[in-house]
Amino acid sequence: MADRSLVETTWDVVVVGGGNAALCAAITAAEKGASVLILEGAPKPYRGGNSRHTRNFRCMHRDPLSVLTEAYEEEEYFRDLLVVTKGKTDEGLARLAIRESEACLPWMEAHGVRFQPSLSGTLSLSRTNAFFLGGGKALVNAYYNTAEDLGVRAVYEAQVVHVGIEDGRFTHVEVELGGETLRIAGKAAVLAAGGFQADIDWLARAWGPSARNFLIRGTPYNRGVVLKDLLDQGAESIGDPTQCHAVAIDGRAPKYDGGIATRIDCVPFSIVVNKDGRRFYDEGEDVWPKRYAIWGRLVAAQPDQMAYAIIDHKSIDLFMPTVFPPEKAETIEGLARRLGLPVPALKQTVEDFNKACREGVFHPTELDGLATEGVAPEKTNWARPLDTPPYYGYLLRPGVTFTYLGLKVDETARVTAPEGVGDGRYANIWAAGEIMAGNVLGEGYLAGFGMTIGTVFGRIAGREAADHVL
Ligand SMILES: Cc1cc2nc3c(=O)[nH]c(=O)nc-3n(C[C@H](O)[C@H](O)[C@H](O)COP(=O)(O)OP(=O)(O)OC[C@H]3O[C@@H](n4cnc5c(N)ncnc54)[C@H](O)[C@@H]3O)c2cc1C
Hints:
With 470 residues, this protein is of the alpha/beta class. It has twelve helices and 19 strands. The chain has helices at residues 4-8, 20-31, 74-85, 91-110, 135-149, 200-207, 225-232, 288-291, 295-300, 332-339, 343-356, 449-469; strands at 10-16, 36-39, 56-58, 115-116, 129-132, 153-155, 159-166, 169-177, 180-191, 215-216, 237-238, 244-250, 271-273, 307-312, 327-329, 391-403, 406-407, 414-416, 425-431. Strands 1, 2, 6, 7, 8, 9, 18 and 19 form an eight-stranded mixed β-sheet that branches. A hairpin with a 2-residue loop joins strand 8 (169-177) and strand 9. Bound molecules: flavin-adenine dinucleotide. Flavin-adenine dinucleotide is lined by residues 16-22, 39-42, 48-51, 53-57, 158-160, 192-194, 217-219, 221-222, 225-226, 259-260, 401-402, 433-434, 448-451, 454. Residues 16-22, 39-42, 48-51, 53-57, 158-160, 192-194, 217-219, 221-222, 225-226, 259-260, 401-402, 433-434, 448-451, 454 line the site of flavin-adenine dinucleotide.
């Protein structure tokens, strides 16, 4: 039998979810004096959803700030966002997220988050991205400790299955907890339960059957139950269900929760072929932080949703070491056999590529313009022949990070209601994090922006919810 105080209390703010956005909202609301309940669907060791996998957030700053070097101002940040989203963003909300990110960093530090200088080994992010000391897990733990100190109640294995709304006003949530379905009442709700990427059936409905071959990089608990419940009740949606953040990851990763360790960063220094042994895209289009997010989609479009990144000995130390060792062979033929690729086709692809490489200066940390000539697709940077054994190969599969279909919100993070309800918004429902990220991420991804969205809108949602109640 669940603790009766949960159902006997009318909470000021009920926060659904238990990741970064939820915690930022809960802390902010509690600091304003609200009684706050966090309902986290995962068991305690898995609390923190996708946020516990993160490493950094992208932060605007006019001068050096904490671990961040130089300056990274609004216009540059916004331009970077426009490039990856191809303009599919709500400019007002995007600029709000960017501008507010500057105040987030000191707020995060004041609430227990520690930062470290940006990691070396990949292309440098020290100016744009602040790295969490101990990663997202440490961030999440620090926030739970802070929330607890503020009197926030967190309940684990509490799956919210329905958000009760009457006349455009949130009244209660229905929660599966300890084998019971409880009705928990609240005066305001912050929905921060993530996207739907862990619901493979939903992904397959959006993407087609190929989605069943996708790997889910993050938590298995983000199944979009709350998002679907709201959409079923007529809440306005934003974003395209077929858009998501997907990277190409190690094809040997577990189906769920493989996290950051399954990433493979060698694409710019490799050739990438499909299972027919053919190249299909410019591997040297851009540096890792800006371009790695498109490779998930590219691999998803290949037969059986598989691809293979192939490098030679010259490149093996140029990227972050991988958790699982690559396949290795002294010859391209041997590597093809180890990877299960057609030997003549791979040999031909490598020969054609090598012939198209030109003399020039190779510069691994910047766009070096060392491009191929006369091969399709061309490789526009870092094109060096594969000629130095041993050769290495990684199986790649699409790894979904998060989905973009979400709840439409305004600049106060309030959720947009169906036409004719209230003033066009629910009276007392706010949303933050992945569940509304589609407002600013219509397409593509900018490394570190997920945590920016969650932190900025989490804080706004917590503030607004508390102000509404108190
Ligand atoms: C491997 C990996 C690495 C990443 N690295 C970065 C990075 O370095 N920088 C960055 O900015 N972004 C990164 N991201 C993206 C980032 O994780 C997200 O954008 C961000 O964490 C979203 O925060 P959130 O609070 O919205 O969701 P989450 O942190 O996923 O939290 C959602 C929570 O809701 C809970 N939940 C779901 N459904 C229910 C329900 N029905 N009832 C109750 N609770 C429910 C889940 O258990 C979970 O705790 C990464 C993602 C992954 C997977």
